[in-house]
Specification:
The chain is of the alpha+beta class and 161 residues long. Helices cover 18% and strands 37% of the residues. The protein is globular and about 40 Å long.
Length: 161
């Protein structure tokens, strides 16, 4: 029997076997999805900001890529994942209000994506797929049993990563 594990904003979860990790309402935030195919262990973080410097309250490790990715790797290893087998996918990072920003502005979504990519690279985790950017929200599902990722949007249907 599968369990649906909801990953909220500034949250992270690890799933095993028949679990399904889900995050909803992904706009400029980024979903970081980590997966060990051999152990069938997945992790998802819904990061809010690119850096702790942008937040007054930075004690939550799930809020930023710099702390969310190492924490996910640690939790996944505790369940039997091996970092050398883990790959990553990213979703989100939209510019939800691009029309309201001055020209040339680097939007929060893009800043979140850059930070997530840098941290993955630092930890030697290969990035194997992305569904990012645009100006629309997403719902993301990671089916842990086989590693499928579904990115669901209202305007653009379902994309598989």
């Amino acid at each position: 029997m599968s369990r649906e594990l909801l990953v909220r904003v500034a949250d992270l979860r690890v799933g095993v076997a028949d679990d399904v990790l889900i995050t909803q309402g992904l706009g400029s935030c980024v979903a970081i999805l980590l997966y060990d195919a051999e152990a069938r262990i997945g992790g998802m973080a819904h990061v809010l900001l690119p850096s702790p410097a942008l937040s007054r309250m930075d004690a939550n490790p799930a809020k930023f890529p710099q702390s969310a990715i190492p924490r996910l790797l640690q939790l996944m290893a505790a369940d039997g994942a091996q970092q050398t087998r883990i790959s990553a996918r990213l979703a989100g990072g939209a510019s939800m209000f691009a029309a309201l920003a001055p020209p040339g502005t680097i939007h929060m979504g893009e800043r979140n994506l850059v930070a997530a990519r840098q941290v993955l690279h630092t930890h030697g985790v290969p990035l194997v797929g992305e569904a990012v950017g645009g100006d629309f929200g997403r719902t993301v599902r990671l089916i842990v049993n086989d590693g499928r990722v579904e990115v669901i949007t209202v305007a653009h249907g379902v994309q598989h990563l």
